[in-house]
From TrEMBL:
UniProt repeat feature TPR, residue ranges: 27-60, 69-102, 111-144
Gene3D superfamilies from the UniProt entry: Tetratricopeptide repeat domain
UniProt xrefs under InterPro entries: NLR-like, TPR-like_helical_dom_sf, TPR_rpt
The organism's taxonomic lineage, starting at the top: Eukaryota, Fungi, Dikarya, Ascomycota, Pezizomycotina
UniProt KW keywords: TPR repeat
Listed PANTHER family: AAA+ ATPASE DOMAIN-CONTAINING PROTEIN-RELATED, ATP/GTP-BINDING PROTEIN-RELATED
Native species: Lasallia pustulata
Protein's name in the database: Beta transducin-like protein het-e4s
Pfam families: TPR_10, TPR_12
Length: 167
């Protein structure tokens, strides 16, 4: 992981010099650094990278660009991991609204965010809300991928084990 961080930092330095810090390539690297830091458990560093990427994407591409939305979704995952459930929900909702406008309700990015909301609600014990999100994800995954795809089957498993145990 230390080598990956060094490579990202090196790439970012070169990209900033070549294109400027608000172009897509450096912002993608900043977002990827956020992912790396989150995976390493460096939550403060991850949040700083996500916020930097988000600010840059919003300035360069606007609030509804898919790169902006991907970073918003990543920030929601970070908040959830930190136990900041209200922030996670608001962030996921923002990403979901944007994805629905950009891609529609059955796109895989939209469905991933719907699933993220389901997980968030389940973790909070809001089982009715979780089930509604999981069922929406299931319906979309069946249409997008088919009934035998791993995304579809994973959602079925979640519904059967965490939402409807014993059914």
């Amino acid at each position: 992981m230390a080598e990956a961080e060094a490579m990202y930092r090196r790439a970012l330095e070169g990209e900033d010099k070549a294109w400027g810090p608000e172009q897509s390539s450096p912002l993608d690297t900043v977002n990827n650094l956020g992912i790396l830091y989150k995976d390493q458990g460096k939550m403060a560093e991850a949040e700083a990278m996500y916020r930097r990427a988000l600010e840059g994407y919003e300035k360069a591409w606007g609030p509804e660009h898919t790169s902006t939305l991907d970073t918003i979704n990543n920030l929601g995952k970070l908040y959830k991991n930190q136990g900041k459930m209200a922030e996670a929900e608001a962030t996921y909702r923002r990403a979901l609204e944007g994805y629905e406008k950009a891609w529609g309700p059955k796109h895989t990015s939209t469905l991933d965010t719907v699933n993220n909301l389901g997980v968030l609600y389940a973790d909070q014990g809001k089982m009715a809300e979780a089930e509604a999100m999981y069922r929406q994800a299931l319906e979309g995954n069946e249409k997008a991928w088919g009934p035998e795809h791993t995304s579809t089957l994973n959602t079925v498993t979640i519904i059967n084990t965490s939402i409807r145990p014993g059914h």
